[in-house]
Amino acid sequence: MKLSSGYIIVGAYADKIRRTLFAQLKDHIKNKEIDPKMVAKASGELNKLLYEILVNKLKLDKGDVVRVMVEYELVDGEVLWKLDTLKVEAFKRMPEEEIKPVVEDAISRMEELEEIEEMKFEIEKAGETDLGDIVYFVKADGEFAGVLMLTPLNGEGLVRGALIKPNPVVIEKMKIDTGEDLKQVLVEVVEQKGREIDEGTAEKIVNEIKELIVK
Question: What is the reported pTM?
Fold first, then answer.
């Protein structure tokens, strides 16, 4: 059997574990296969362990969110936790003072973001490296915007690169299908925008890839 707390704030996980375990074992309790006191004991043991993990070790606050999953079995009227299956997911609550400026910045850039969405990207083959990788130039509304380098792998490929326009981003290595309409696939890679970096780093990556072109 498996117990899952679902997503719950740290301040309420113990009660949720107890109620969930009793709910799962209600038929076993009714059939006298296990005493309610043993169910309470088992939930208490697990909650004690979770307190050590969540509060003492991870230093989570009461408002942070967790999800706990663990398997168990009934043996001779007792709950035996399979602790090697214990999985804990934790999500820390961000302070309002950190979130507010991000929201305000995004709102102030709405027009800019809409322009980026409307921008049309084009892919042009620029050449190959001495290792057989294929380099593509990316154009945005007709102007040079960045580069992609594709390593073919039996119908698939690994692509990476960087853009300097409209915003400097790095496109970290990812696997793509190189079958039908490869250029459209590469456009979709570009439109995902990658991870934002500073302009100097983006230009460095672009130049390094361009220098690898030998034909």
Answer: 0.51
